[in-house]
Amino acid sequence: MNLKTKTLFLSLFLSTSVLAIDLTLNISNIEKLEGTLKISLTDKAEGFPGNTDNAIREEIVAVDKNKMQVTFFNLEQGEYAVSLFHDVNDDGELNLRRLGVGPIRFGKPKLPDEPIGFSNNPRIRSRPKYEDCKFKMSGNRTIEIQLQTL
Known about the structure:
Order of helices and strands: HEEEEEEEEHEE
CATH architecture: Sandwich
Distance between the termini: 62 Å
């Protein structure tokens, strides 16, 4: 390789390395040491939370501690949001339970029957919005997420 080729290769390598950043999640309040954590990282409001078709990354991690750490490597700078749930029975779905005695013709409202969590730890009164959970990534970052049981 001549000097120009080496210089071009080195500059391309360095420019892509600088853009790759990591996001570490410290997940706490895990009550049962069974099942898996289903984690979705997204950069769009559309389908958040719950629609994993729009996730840019997903992780499924076996639960073996009350506090878990998961890292998404090689992300680009930008805006993201995280949603996750503790799939206690490991059936691959967020199980829901009926609430109250709503009219049968409209169906009864449903709440998650398994612990859930989101970036920025919003207080959950209804389905969290992307705007409430989003955060910016301009360098390596660690965020804390506490699972909540409704």
